[in-house]
Design brief:
The chain is built from 21 helices and no strands. It comes from Wenyingzhuangia gilva.
Length: 472
């Protein structure tokens, strides 16, 4: 990645992180779609990829399920970014938070910020866990098992706290520091994923496409404690893995300074470098480990072999693997903690950015002590999207249908109200109904994310029509 490209990415992310929070982005700050490619490629080839790839294997996916399912699911995600998020962003050029405030009112946005901040902290915590599995290798640290929920020893606790403290302090220095570090590290991480995939293929003795396909075969029973993933699990989960960002409209904050909506296509760089190549490369690392005597001993005892990214990468590419896993966890946790701090600052505006970031980092570090957040990452990411995505439906349905339905756009701002009952009722009903369906009928949350999003959007329009008419 050239120095010019890195500087341009830094400029984009710096704007997204702090400037023009309550006003449209001016024409002089707009960027072409090529400027977004490096940013998305770097952001989505990171710590989460080292966990997600192996977790697919623990869910018993087949070759067709994984390779074709990811291909289709990631295309659907890119289409959502292009034709929903980017399309709305270039029309309004506002951050997600300010757009929501105009529609929902300040009180409801406070609730959204709290949920967003806490979920960000848990995600960052899982990435601290990922880095800890690499840092712990020289200390012969016992790695967390797939079914572990609690810390497994004092060495683990000390390493997680140390990593969390360093990451939090860097994040507290501001978005510019965070993004410069992340963008310099991202090419190393991408190269490491490629190297891991190539080495793993050699270790598996693969010499042609047929043998590569046979690695996963027709699928298998899931490991103990895991659910079975089918083709549609892979498609729908990969589609909504970033549901909060695309149909949830979080990336309005990024695309608001794109010159054209076609900048949304740049997300394909993230999906197919990170969510395709990197996931498959990480899965190959785990496929090598599963064949080892150690992993087979776990399976023969009815236990799931550990999914520890550090040892997996180290076994493939040595010290570079340790460095790559540490950097990957680092580059995901750092901006995530910073964003969580911004969400908390919106609730506690009297605290400085540095203080709320340290607060967010402390919560993330505590979460990182508990391996369950990382080991259950597939389920957590599904929950994250399910909770936050419906708020994006409110923005999308108002944007595209407010004239047809005859409702006032940005109603909270126009009416001078602090919370919009139409938003609250729409989200609560859609969330409650589909969460109940998921629990009652044991349906994976990703399968009900889109129905919940659609219902929330429709209910918002219906309630808006009713309450606005009543107000008149």
């Amino acid at each position: 990645m050239s120095q010019t490209n890195i500087n341009e990415i830094n400029e984009i992310e710096e704007i997204a992180g702090g400037e023009f929070e309550r006003e449209p982005v001016p024409q002089s700050k707009l960027k072409g779609w090529k400027s977004f490619i490096g940013m998305y490629a770097g952001e989505h080839a990171a710590g989460t990829e080292f966990m997600i790839g192996p977790l697919f294997l623990t869910a018993g996916v087949s070759a067709f399920d994984l390779i074709v399912g990811l291909l289709l699911g990631n295309i659907l995600a890119v289409l959502c970014w292009r034709f929903l998020t980017a399309e709305i962003a270039i029309k309004n050029r506002l951050t997600l938070y300010f757009q929501l405030e105009k529609i929902c009112g300040k009180k409801l946005v406070t609730g959204y910020n709290l949920a967003n901040g806490i979920l960000f902290c848990f995600l960052a915590g899982s990435m601290i866990t990922v880095s800890a599995t690499a840092v712990g290798i020289p200390f012969n640290m016992e790695m967390p098992k797939l079914t572990d929920t609690m810390p497994n020893g004092m060495t683990w606790i000390i390493i997680v706290i140390a990593i969390g403290a360093v990451i939090s302090m860097i994040a507290a220095k501001g978005y510019d520091t965070v993004t410069k570090a992340a963008n310099w590290m991202s090419p190393i991480i991408v190269l490491a994923f490629v190297a891991c995939g190539v080495v793993a293929i050699n270790q598996l003795g693969v010499s042609n496409l047929s043998e590569f396909w046979d690695i996963w075969g027709n699928g298998a029973e899931p490991f103990p404690g895991q659910i079975k993933f089918t083709f549609w699990h892979v498609v729908i989960w990969s589609w909504f893995a970033n549901g909060a960002m695309h149909i949830g409209m979080s990336d309005l904050s990024v695309f608001r300074f794109a010159k054209e909506a076609k900048a949304g296509w740049a997300t394909a760089a993230g999906m197919y470098v990170g969510h395709y190549m990197a996931w498959i490369a990480a899965a190959l690392l785990y496929a090598v480990y599963v064949q080892s005597p150690e992993a087979q001993a776990f399976l023969s005892n009815g236990e799931a072999p550990p999914v520890a990214p550090g040892p997996l990468a180290y076994n493939a590419i040595g010290i570079l693997g340790i460095i790559a896993v540490v950097l990957a966890g680092w580059t995901t946790a750092n901006p995530t903690i910073y964003r969580a701090g911004l969400a908390f600052q919106a609730i506690m505006p009297k605290l400085s950015t540095a203080k709320v970031t340290i607060l967010a980092g402390s919560i993330a570090t505590i979460a990182g002590l508990f391996p369950a957040f990382a080991m259950k990452l597939l389920g957590f990411v599904a929950l994250y999207g399910f909770i936050l995505a419906p708020f994006g439906a409110v923005i999308a349905f108002e944007h595209f249908f407010h004239e047809k339905w005859g409702i006032t756009k940005n109603y909270a701002e126009v009416a001078g109200i602090k919370y919009n009952k139409a938003v609250l009722f729409a989200w609560a009903i859609s969330f409650g109904l589909f969460y109940f369906i998921s629990i009652k009928f044991d349906i994976f949350l990703s399968f009900v994310t889109l129905p919940s999003w659609l219902l929330c959007g429709v209910l918002f329009m219906v309630f808006s029509k009713y309450f606005q008419k009543k107000k008149k």
